[in-house]
Write the C-alpha cells for this entry.
Amino acid sequence: MSDIFISYKREDQATARKLVDALESKGLTVWWDPKLRAGERFNDVIEKALKESKCVVVMWSKRAVDSQYVKDEATYALNRNKLVPVRIEEVELPFKFEGLHTLSLLGWDGSKDFLELRRLVDDISAILGPSYAATSRAGKPLRMDAEKPEEDDLPFIGRQSSTVFFSERFGKSFPRVRGIQWFKEPEVVIERLKVFFAKPFVFRDSHPIWWWRDGDMPIRSFAILSSDTVLIDEQELVIDDFAAVNARAYHQSFLYLKTKPSDPSGLHNDASIHDQVASQGYAKEEFAIFRGRFILRTEYDDGAAVIDGKVVDLPGEATLRVRYLTPYNLIIAPHESPINNDDFEQRRVQFLNGLLQGQTTLEELTDAILKLPKRQFY
C-alpha cells in the first residue's frame, strides 16, 4: 500500500519526478507508473495502486486535462474522496473538478524557489493527516532539507529551444552528417557520445535531451562503463549499431542506438524473457548496486536488503540499474522534437520493434518522422 498515487501526463514526467523525489525524501511512499515492472498488466496494476493508495495527487496541466487516462484516475479518486488536485500550469479544469480546492505548483521546473515545492509537499502531508505532517513512516521527524536541490548548481538554458541545443550538439559530435550515417565501431560511438553529452546538458530550467522508446524520459546523466557500454541514467547499454540522422531540418535530427544483450545480473531466472519479448519486443531486468553487490529491485524500493543473511539498511547508497537481456533499441532526440507526439507513440514502438526483428528499416522510420507536424510552440 502506498501513501500517494501520482496521476500525470507523460509529457509532465520531469516535473512529476521532482515531486515524487520530494515526497519520498519526506518519508512518504509514492506509486507512479515508472514503478511498473516488465511483464505486469498495466490496467491491473494501475487499478490496484489506485485502490490501495491513501490519496491520489493529480497533476493538472494543459496536456493532462486532455488525457482521458488522467481524467479517469481523477474521477476514481473523486468518487472515493481521496483526490488531491495540483495545478502545475494555469489551466481550466474539467467542470466536475473545478469547484475543488486545488493546490498549485504553477510552472515549477526547478528554476524557481525550492520553497514552493516544499510548501506543496507539506500541504499534501497535512491532507494525509497530522501524523504524516509530523512524523515519517519510521517514526522520525519529517522535514524537507533546507539545502537547495542539486539543480540549483546548474546553469540556465534561457530561451534557447531544446531543438536548437540538440542541433548544435549534433553538429559538434557528428560533423558533415547529412541524411543517415551509421557508426559500427563501439569505440567510435562512445567518443562521439562523449562530445555530445559534454556538460552541461542538463539545466536548471530545462532537460533538452530525451530518450524515446515505449516510454520517454529526459536524460539526466551519461557515463562510460567500458569500451562498448554506456550508462544513460539507469540504463546499461551495450552498443551494437548506432546511427546519426540529419535528414532534413534541424528540429528533425535524432540519434538511433541498438544494443546487444547484457550479461544477466544472476538475481532473476530467465522464465519471463519469452513473455517480455512477446509483449513488448525485448526483455529487461531491474536491480540495484549497493557497495559493489547486486541487490533486488524490491530491496532497493524497500530501502533495505538481505546480505549474507542479515538485513542491511541502504542509506541512500544503492544505485538503480536496468539491463536489457535481449537486443533493444531507442531514439535520442530533443524534448521539442516532432517525435514528442502522443499520436505517434504506438507507431514509434512498432517501427522500433520492426527494426529489432529486421522487418523495417531506419529509412522507413526516418520518413515517418519527417512527416510529423512541427511542435506548436516553436
